[in-house]
Structure prediction request, 545 residues.
Amino acid sequence: MKNHPLTIALVIEDIYLPAWQVAMLRRLATQEGLKIELVLLADKPKGWPLNPAKFSFFKKIQRLESKLLEATEAADQLENISGLFDGSFIKLTADSARQQYFEKAINLVINLSSSSKLPRYLIEHSNYGVWHYFYNSHLERDVSWAGIQEFNLNQEGILSGVMVYSSYFTKPRYLWVSYTSKQCLLSKTRDNLLWKMLEFMPVLCQQAARFEYGKSFIQSRHLATLIDKVVSLESICYCALWTENFLVLALGFLYAHIKRLVYKLALNKTWILLKSEQDPVQNFKKTDQAQVLYTVATGFVADPCLIEENGEQYVFFEEYVEATQRGRLVCLKLQDCSTKPEPLIVLEKDYHLSYPFVFKSEGLWYLVPESAENRTIDLYRCVRFPDQWEFVKSLMTNIDAYDATFYQYLGRWWMFVNLRPHPSTSPNELLYLFSADDLLADHWQAHPANPIINHADKARSAGALFERDGVIYRPSQNCAGSYGRGLNLNAIIEWNEHTYKEKTVAQCIPQGQASLHGMHSFSCLGNTVISDGIYTRKRWQKAYV
Prediction:
């Protein structure tokens, strides 16, 4: 596929930009066929006079959280970008700005300023339009607002993305819409959101370069890729001024931290395994009405994978050992789980293991564990079922990858895996797809639509794909608001080497029945369903063993 060169003009308000935007520009600088030829300095628009004091207060709060509670790398730390560009910066209002724009044949403008009032020629003559970020459902363009309202008003997540102004359409169009989960701290919420957003522009540039005509690219992104979230975005977009009131935001922040402290002191949470006999599609929403299958007195068990060998059903799962503070992979016969014997240890390393994905290829059993702590995706082959496995190879290395899930389709092996663009982002929100002709291939080809899912409420895999009545289903986690909040069942409606589309057809979000407050794994054979759940009890109550 031929790529077309992108010649970019960058619009900024200051030579000091947030660290996440600087990282994004460095990413762009490494992309082939793309060059930032012009940097334009815009005047900062006048805002509400009290906003700077409001933002300064919450910035100090974030620093305090990082110092006392949990540190993350500050995405809004300012950095000087002078050294990134060869030429000088030009005032947007200067006559030379227009002259340089046409001389350098600019075909894309990336607007990092908070202003929407740009000279008309930038919009009318840029083939791919003028792109800009927005940071919440108000379509707010000022990065200072990112995550503040959603965290302090106890919302589950944050809508953000990229919009484009162009001469092709009278109204702006959406190029990217993403749903990012609120975290337990304001600092983590903002850093997760912004470091995640550094991925947006580089990916869009890669995709735009495949289109000769910008109009075709904009239509493709707006109508096909993002229609599910665009509809929800437009339905909830509002600008209620009371949500910007400092007192409301401060009280919301105080409430969030008091609630977090009370829950931490009063509640004990542990993962347990569950079993039910039901149609995995028709009764998916009732998955939380399962019976307890297996628990442990200390630590927890999670991530079940149900398989069948020689007429016997086996459950592979993670067992978290408190003594070592890490997980290992174990196995039990399904029929033995009720008597709670000691499970067979399948794989244990000096780093954390979870999500044992066990599958068969050409008559041999293979295992791929989640080993993000080792920064690898490793493949093991069974030499004696079910507890002896030999290392085959690392399919990917030096990668922050989670819950690799494999499926053979269209004569190829496909790998669904969550990746983190930055250590301060959540592993639950960006799902990537790779494929190879052979399971043991040295190179796995990235899907051109990557990341195929970028929403916290459906991205992370929850177990193996399965087929019913000609439809392939992908179970996924709903991590909006909290990790392991619930499960989704997604029907894949289009899947090939160029396209991937799925639709959520069922959800299971536990509401506290039988003290179950979350789920994040789903595995089925026929009508036998094994899942996991967060069992919650007050600390003074007896444990569920």
